[in-house]
């Protein structure tokens, strides 16, 4: 019996899932039991339920129906037998394949990209998030318009050929819709460019105030929001479902006695993430390029955690942030049985219970301070210009004007140390402290 949702009282949409593992496909694009289970979780996140799954093996995708006519008939029987409302494909479908499958199966057809976009449309709360989703939806829709106008052909003479005098309106409307969508895409891209400019201003202000930025990244549902709550008492929603966080949340966090940072949560990554979705979310994800440190949160309890970590690493590289210092945070370690991962840039925690949080802060403090020295300086007034240099390039903790000169406490990059060594009272070795 179909499940009824508690919030709306409506019947949940029932979906049959279909995937293709073709020898001609890239390994990462082939459907598997793991990717199909993930697709089922996506359907659940979207508010539906999975009635059945089907994986097809063949040398190459069928150009017309993707999975071949025999499997299409089998899929139609499953849909009728299970009273399904839609068919969801684990792979990306071409516009013509989507049109053929909709006609053959008699239900709504979605591919993985369309399903992810639907979830994003439900989850986006801020204006920026909504702009990004709308842009991705229009880019997804544009090449699929032709299929949406196929009903105009069916309304004409038998055989699908249009009589003289009836060809114009459909084509005109189709082109009109295309022009309208292109205009919308251009407008949305301009609005998102404004968002980037605002973010750039905010970023320069943070840099001027010497406040380091740390971004939480990771596979969807790895526990990033739970970790943000654990460290900052942010009290943001953190549920056990895919893509629960779409809009960036930033909170202040005191890492140690001398260091305060801005900690940002970001949208989770996933395998087969649509390219246009990455493009649309550049305004949010570009923060990764300017972060001082990335905390890569990994769900250690997931059997696929190594593959998921590789997917995240690849997307970080695609976004141009592969050179940013990174700390691997292995989450849900209390649910892992085996030898825990370890290393200089790795820490095991349980974000839910708080276990390992202090160790994480200590590792983060060390990473932020790598290549820096904490110095006590006495700068003569004749060299007071050095204080301006320190305020630009270092983290000045304290500056007092005394009879002897300017007494300064600062965390200084190693590159600046050579210019300042002579102003360390009682020789450098006596007063400097590595951070």
Write a structural description.
The protein has 435 residues and is an alpha/beta fold. 43% of the residues lie in helices and 20% in strands. The chain has 17 helices and 14 strands. The protein has helices spanning 33-46, 69-82, 95-105, 112-123, 127-141, 145-148, 150-154, 167-208, 224-232, 275-280, 282-285, 287-290, 305-318, 357-368, 385-393, 414-420, 428-431; strands at 14-22, 49-58, 86-89, 108-111, 213-218, 249-254, 260-265, 293-299, 326-331, 346-348, 372-379, 395-401, 406-413, 433-434. The longest helix has 42 residues, at 167-208.
Which terms would index this structure?
435 residues, alpha/beta, six-stranded mixed β-sheet, four-stranded parallel β-sheet, 17 helices, 43% helix, 20% strand
List the SSEs and their pairings.
Blueprint: E1 14-22, H1 33-46, E2 49-58, H2 69-82, E3 86-89, H3 95-105, E4 108-111, H4 112-123, H5 127-141, H6 145-148, H7 150-154, H8 167-208, E5 213-218, H9 224-232, E6 249-254, E7 260-265, H10 275-280, H11 282-285, H12 287-290, E8 293-299, H13 305-318, E9 326-331, E10 346-348, H14 357-368, E11 372-379, H15 385-393, E12 395-401, E13 406-413, H16 414-420, H17 428-431, E14 433-434
Parallel strand pairs: 1-2, 1-3, 3-4, 5-7, 5-8, 8-9, 9-10
Antiparallel strand pairs: 6-7, 11-13, 11-14, 12-13
Helix pairs in contact: 1-4, 4-5, 5-8
Instruction: Tell me the helix content.
Output: 40-55%
User: Which structural category fits the helices and strands?
Assistant: alpha/beta
Q: How far do the termini sit from each other?
A: 62 Å
**For this entry, what is the oligomeric state of its chains?**
single chain
Give the radius of gyration: 28 Å
* Major beta sheet summary: 6 strands, mixed
Write down the overall mean pLDDT: 81
For the biggest β-sheet, the strand order reads 6-7-5-8-9-10
Strand content: 15-25%
Q: Show unreliable segments.
A: 4-8, 149-170, 427-435
């Amino acid at each position: 019996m179909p499940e009824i949702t508690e919030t709306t009282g409506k019947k949940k949409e029932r979906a049959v899932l279909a995937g293709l593992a073709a020898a001609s496909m890239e390994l990462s694009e082939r459907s598997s039991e793991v990717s199909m289970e993930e697709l089922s979780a996506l359907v659940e996140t979207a508010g539906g339920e999975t009635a059945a799954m089907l994986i097809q093996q063949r040398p190459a995708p069928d150009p017309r129906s993707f999975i071949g006519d025999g499997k299409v008939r089998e899929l139609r029987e499953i849909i009728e037998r299970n009273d399904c409302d839609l068919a969801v494909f684990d792979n990306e479908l071409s516009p013509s394949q989507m049109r053929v499958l909709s006609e053959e199966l008699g239900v709504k057809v979605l591919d993985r990209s369309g399903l992810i976009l639907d979830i994003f449309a439900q989850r986006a709360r801020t204006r920026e998030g909504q702009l990004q989703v709308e842009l991705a939806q229009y880019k997804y829709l544009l090449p699929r318009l032709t299929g949406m106008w196929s009903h105009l052909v069916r309304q004409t003479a038998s055989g699908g050929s249009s009589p003289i005098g009836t060809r114009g309106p459909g084509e005109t409307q189709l082109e009109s819709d295309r022009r309208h969508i292109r205009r919308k895409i251009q407008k949305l891209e301009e609005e998102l460019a404004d968002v980037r400019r605002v973010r750039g201003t905010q970023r320069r202000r943070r840099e001027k105030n010497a406040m380091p930025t740390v971004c939480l990244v990771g596979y969807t549902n790895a526990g990033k929001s739970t970790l943000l709550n654990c460290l900052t008492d942010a009290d943001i929603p953190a549920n056990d479902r895919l893509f629960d966080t779409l809009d960036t949340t930033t909170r202040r966090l005191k890492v140690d006695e001398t260091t305060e940072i801005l900690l940002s949560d970001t949208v989770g990554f996933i395998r087969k993430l649509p390219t246009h979705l990455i493009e649309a979310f550049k305004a949010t994800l570009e923060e990764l390029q300017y972060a001082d440190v990335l905390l890569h949160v990994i769900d250690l309890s997931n059997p696929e955690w190594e593959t998921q970590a590789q997917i995240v690493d690849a997307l970080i590289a695609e976004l141009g942030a592969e050179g940013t210092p990174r700390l691997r945070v292995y989450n849900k370690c209390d649910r892992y049985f085996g030898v825990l991962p370890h290393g200089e840039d790795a820490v095991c925690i349980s974000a839910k219970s708080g276990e390992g949080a202090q160790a994480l802060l200590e590792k983060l403090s060390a990473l932020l301070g790598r290549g820096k020295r904490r110095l006590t300086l006495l700068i003569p007034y004749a060299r007071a210009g050095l204080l301006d240099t320190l305020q630009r390039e270092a983290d000045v903790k304290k500056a007092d004007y005394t009879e002897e000169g300017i007494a300064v406490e600062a965390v200084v990059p190693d590159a600046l140390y050579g210019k300042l060594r002579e102003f360390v009272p009682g020789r450098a070795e006596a007063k400097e402290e590595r951070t």
